[in-house]
DNA sequence: GAGGCGTGGTG
DNA sequence: TCACCAAGCCT
């Protein structure tokens, strides 16, 4: 399978900036931004960041509020704060250089098994077992014959990925990148382009007659949740340059057409003269959002 | 180990 | 239209 995927990858791989001549720091930033966020939205922000903060020390010195603003609308802003903390550790414990091995990468905040393996492989050419959602899906179809991988990563999947990894270090790096790209462009979650697949002939899922998924992926609720409130709060704060009053949050939520959010923030507005109740309500509604506000130097009314 | 965490494009 | 989905991590 290696040669077919490699040939396809050489011809079809996307020309992404972090795949060109790029520092380990640039690779790390890209991997964090790409956690659950599509490439098309990451690319312009990544360009901005690398120009503004070309090395970990530059980024570590920036105020948290600026980090969150620069993060823009990539989503999951806690990733930005964790990367900020990681840059601090890189400066303090690694002399300002991104560590070049899996174990030390894994110890950084916001860096899990996937990101540690990916940075070790793509920034430092290490032979590591990279397993992301694309690779899991390709393995599930190509090797196992199932439409989708299990809901959560299993030990068996890790063992399979380790078994498939080429022994040669340089080939292992190309294999990781190629399988991931195949999952992103051809072997997609919905409507895979099997007609363009370089390993169609060897695919266990095709051989089995493309059976349907054996479970139903469960969606994440959004309307009326704390996350929706946090999203509205963060949208206001990104645009603000000074401490934000709760009234402003409510007005903004209403103006943005978020009736559920405005209703919840309206409760806070009514409670504004009763500080203890306000604190309790805020703690229940926007606990993480408040932590981010505090980290970013913002204040809520007393 | 299941659930929480932002955001916007798309079939 | 509205679920689903996008290079996960942490608790």
Please provide a written account of the structure.
The protein has three domains: 2-124, Orthogonal Bundle (Endonuclease III, domain 1), CATH 1.10.340.30; 133-207, Endonuclease Iii, domain 2, CATH 1.10.1670.10; 226-295, no CATH class. 60% of the residues lie in helices and 0% in strands. It has helices at residues 2-12, 24-33, 39-52, 56-60, 64-71, 78-94, 102-106, 113-124, 133-144, 155-164, 169-185, 204-207, 226-239, 246-255, 259-270, 275-295. Helix 2 (24-33) runs antiparallel to helix 3 (39-52), helix 2 packs antiparallel against helix 8 (113-124) and helix 9 packs across helix 11 (169-185). The protein binds a DNA duplex (11 and 11 nucleotides) through helix 2, helix 3, helix 6, helix 8 and helix 9.
Poorly predicted ranges: 256-261, 264-302
Question: Which structural class fits the helix and strand makeup?
Answer: mainly alpha
For the terminal residues, how far apart are their CA atoms? 63 Å
What is the CATH-assigned architecture of the largest domain?
Answer: Orthogonal Bundle
DSSP strand content: under 5%
Q: What is the string of SSEs from the N terminus onward?
A: HHHHHHHHHHHHHHHH
Oligomer: single chain
Q: On the 0-100 scale, what is the average pLDDT? A: 84
What CATH calls the topology of the largest domain is: Endonuclease III, domain 1
From the spread of the alpha carbons, the general shape counts as globular
DSSP summary: helix tally: 16
């Amino acid at each position: 399978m290696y040669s077919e995927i490699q040939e396809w990858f050489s011809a079809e791989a996307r020309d992404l900036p972090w795949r060109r001549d790029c520092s380990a720091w640039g690779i790390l930033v890209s991997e964090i931004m790409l956690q659950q966020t599509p490439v098309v939205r990451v690319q312009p922000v990544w360009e901005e960041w690398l120009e503004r903060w070309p090395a970990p020390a530059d980024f570590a010195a920036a105020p948290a509020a600026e980090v969150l603003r620069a993060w823009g609308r990539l989503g999951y802003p806690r990733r930005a704060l964790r990367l900020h903390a990681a840059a601090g550790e890189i400066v303090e414990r690694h002399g300002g250089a991104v560590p070049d091995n899996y174990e030390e990468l894994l110890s950084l905040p916001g860096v899990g098994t996937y990101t540690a393996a990916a940075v070790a492989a793509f920034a430092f050419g290490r032979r590591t077992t990279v397993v992301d959602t694309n690779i899991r899906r390709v393995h599930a179809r190509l090797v196992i014959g199932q439409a989708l991988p299990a809901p959560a990563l299993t030990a068996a999947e890790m063992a399979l990925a380790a078994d498939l990894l080429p022994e040669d270090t340089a080939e292992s790096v190309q294999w990781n990148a190629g399988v991931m790209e195949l999952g992103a462009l051809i072997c997609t979650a919905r409507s895979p382009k099997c007609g363009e697949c370089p390993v169609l002939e060897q695919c266990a899922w095709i051989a089995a007659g493309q059976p349907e998924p054996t479970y139903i992926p469960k969606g994440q609720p959004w309307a009326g949740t704390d996350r929706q409130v946090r999203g509205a709060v963060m949208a206001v704060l990104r645009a603000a340059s000074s401490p934000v009053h709760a009234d402003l949050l409510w007005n903004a939520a209403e103006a943005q057409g978020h009736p559920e959010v405005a209703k919840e923030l309206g409760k806070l507005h009514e409670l504004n003269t009763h500080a203890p109740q306000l604190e309790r309500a805020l703690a229940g509604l926007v606990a993480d959002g408040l932590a981010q506000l505090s980290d970013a130097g913002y204040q809520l009314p007393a």
